[in-house]
Amino acid sequence: MDQPDLPRGIALTPLDENFRRDPYAVLSKLRDHAPVFEDTVLKRFIYTRHDDVREVLRDRDFWSDPRKANAGTFSANFLLGGNRQEEPSMLLMDEPGHRRLRSLVSSSFTPAAVERWRPRIRKVVDMVLADISTNEFNLIMEFAGPVPTVVIAEMLGIDPARRGDFKQWSDESVKVSFNPFSQPEERARGDRARDMLEAFFATEIAARRHHPGDDLISDMIRAEEGGDRLTESEMIQQCNLLLIAGNVTTTDLIGNAVKALLDNPAELEKLRANPDLIVNTVEEALRFDSPVVNSGRIPDRDIHVGGCPVHRGESLSTSLAAANHDPSIYPQPQRFDVTRQDTHHQSFGGGRHLCLGAHLARAEAQEAILGLIGRFPKLRLSPKGHVYHAIPSFRGMSEFWVQG
User: Fold this and answer.
1) Terminus of the chain with fewer CB atoms < 10 Å: N or C?
2) Is pLDDT above 60 for 85?
3) CA torsion angle for 220, 222, 224, 227 (degrees, to 10)?
């Protein structure tokens, strides 16, 4: 299945300039020539067909915990963070720990719970837009980044005066948390940022114990399932996940969706003419340019996937981006179509680890896009262009210049 002319290793991550610029061309080549591809450099199997990705993600017996991966594989080498004893975050946790934590926090992220936040999300969008005072601006820095940061801060009950620190710490932390190839100086900055965040959240949790409110930290303190409660360290970990994983993905979703609309002005005009298309627009944006490029699992047994054998403990990387552009599933997958009838996608993963914040991300993106095109009826691309960031597993921009 290995072919010498196919890219491997770093060339299959956004640390590579070609992949960062257009991952879909690279992944399409993989899907056409080796849909189950053994990346012998990073020691993982990569799946690029829609049905194979779906099968791997929805196997409820597969593991996510990198401590269970075979030595020398991608998961063991890059996802452990050098500590086989430390319990992973909920993103990489297996049963029964994953089910326990998820059950204690999931009530705050149901569709009904998120809808109660929608009016406030709309106000946040309006507030951020009101602060944009120039005709030309970096959409990521001035809009797509602040909106989810402020929303999460409000949901957690954070003092608005601390949002600048909040954003800085989360930005520094995410550069390391999801980059297995980070440099020592980056890791040092990320560690300092995480320490600051943990101390900050510990103070916030202590304050809520004395004066609970209507916010997610208070909800976590009150949360109980069969007599079980979250420990303080678990609450801090959940706050970090919300801030880091939720912020970067929603920022990227908003940025990618707006870029797709501006690159396809006819689709933007359809949305302007019929704002009810916003739900379909966001789903198509998630399919067309997913903010999360790949996920992974570790098989608990020897098994065949996509017609190829893999052994227990191997690293299986599922390319969500490639699955979302599989032409056998999506007609003209490279076409952005806000009226596409089948907008189902793999962008939120699947199985036990289906993204907990999916409903919140959708609501934020819907309100952000409608607010933006309402505020700027002549929104267009700026000659200053855009710059994609180089965070492995993510697809998004650090700069995206537009004109209003």
Assistant:
1) N
2) no
3) 130
